[in-house]
Design a protein that fits this description.
The longest helix has 27 residues, at about 30-60. The protein is an alpha+beta fold. About 35% of the residues lie in helices and about 25% in strands. The chain has helices at about 10-30, 30-60; strands at about 65, 70-75, 95, 100, 110-120, 120-130, 135-140. A hairpin with a 6-residue loop joins β6 and β7 (about 135-140).
């Protein structure tokens, strides 16, 4: 009769496979605050470009500024349906620092930047910036 059980080599192989799989999962999962900040920076860049286009189309100057609860676009015509630009961050803890950003109506605007960070990770900042000609883009360093 043959003894039942696993050999030491089989056990080591299983432990190694589980270790490699756990490491792969750990590297695949990013920090939630890190990815939230990335998403909010991309979202803000798109919103600023949308407001810039609306300013040029309407001929009215539009200004973006941060508030305690989020941000506000001033100068856009009032809209009663769902096409109005939002005024809050989707993620909790996002903060912005900037002078008011002037978005038009001229095709060329002054170089401008907005610094974003998460309250949970204040040491990491992203910048949403433009040189005045190109669209707003997310940068990891100060412009």
């Amino acid at each position: 009769m043959r003894p039942r059980g696993f050999t030491l080599l089989e056990l080591l192989l299983v432990v190694a496979i589980v270790g490699v799989a756990a490491a792969g999962v750990a590297f695949a999962l990013r920090d939630a605050a890190h990815s939230q900040l990335d998403r909010e920076a991309q979202r803000l860049a798109a919103l600023l470009e949308s407001a810039r286009a609306q300013s040029r189309a309407s001929g009215n100057p539009v200004r973006w500024r941060s508030t305690a609860q989020g941000f506000v676009f001033e100068g856009l015509p009032p809209v009663k349906d769902a096409s109005a630009l939002p005024s809050t961050w989707q993620a909790i803890g996002i903060q912005a620092q900037s002078e008011p950003v002037l978005l038009g109506p001229d095709p060329l605007i002054a170089p401008q930047a907005v610094r974003l960070w998460n309250k949970d990770q204040p040491e990491r900042s992203l910048w949403v910036a433009t040189d005045g000609v190109r669209p707003f883009a997310v940068r990891s360093n100060a412009p």
